[in-house]
Amino acid sequence: MSGELIQIEPGADRRTQRRPAWIRVRAPGSAGFERTRGLMRELELHTVCEEAACPNIGECWEKRHATTMILGSVCTRRCGFCNVRTGRPENVDPHEPERLALAVRRLELKHVVVTSVDRDDLPDGGAGHFVSCIEAIRRSAPGTTIEVLTPDFLRKPGAAERVARARPDVYNHNLETVPRLYPRARRGADYRHSLELLSQVKRTEPGLFTKSGIMLGLGETRAEVEATLDDMREADVDFVTIGQYLSPSRRHLPIERYARPEEFDAYAASARRKGFLLAACSPLTRSSYHADADFRKLADWAGASA
Questions:
Q1: 12 within a domain of the structure (yes/no)
Q2: 78-109 pLDDT, tens per residue?
Q3: Which of 39, 210, 211, 217 could form a disulfide linkage to 245, CB 3.0–4.6 angstroms apart?
């Protein structure tokens, strides 16, 4: 795949170099965007769209697709790629599930993605709060399908299974990168544990769609990406996402390279050959980007194969 990468020039500031044309987006500011932001402020909800500095926030919020981040806005981990604040987390808000459910109803969402910060300080890692949020949304908006994007619940036995038994429609947990880069990118996490979590979710609730994703641009090789895709399939993951890593600031890991759109297309084709039901691979792909449309594709596949 020679010629499909943009290497960062030697000596250049890898965090601030001008982005290639295919990952530039318009600044947010539409009326739909402002309505979504206003509702999040009114209901005192955090979103990963803002906290993680997602480049798609303008497009998604214009369509009222906001990914809520529960359990506060402060994470107990310090991953090298992530823009979410690290420190001592807030107390868990017992009323957050109901406010989240109200937002889902008022936004008239057909599909909602709920994620969280890591909460290593909690005995169950926040699994019970995920369950409360799922239950609240089911009561408030029974026609809305629910996708959860959970942390790894490391050293919290039974936590992922508890969330799975609440039967969200999609259970997502991101591997984020290849195993060699975990010490730099996912300090405090364990690659094999994350794979086992995904596998355990499927064993607990075989009917759930499982999902995971990685980023390109942290220094991974093609062989490592292909091996990681193989590991995901071994864990019975149904849906994979691959996007371009964009460094949030000078404090974060630098971008080692920009992958061209053709490389993402090649990985999507490879994922289909490996047996994934769905592969969303593009420079701007993120876990919740176009998640509603992607879920409909998964549902259509399940209906056709029934």
A1: no
A2: 999 998 899 999 999 999 999 999 999 998 88
A3: 217
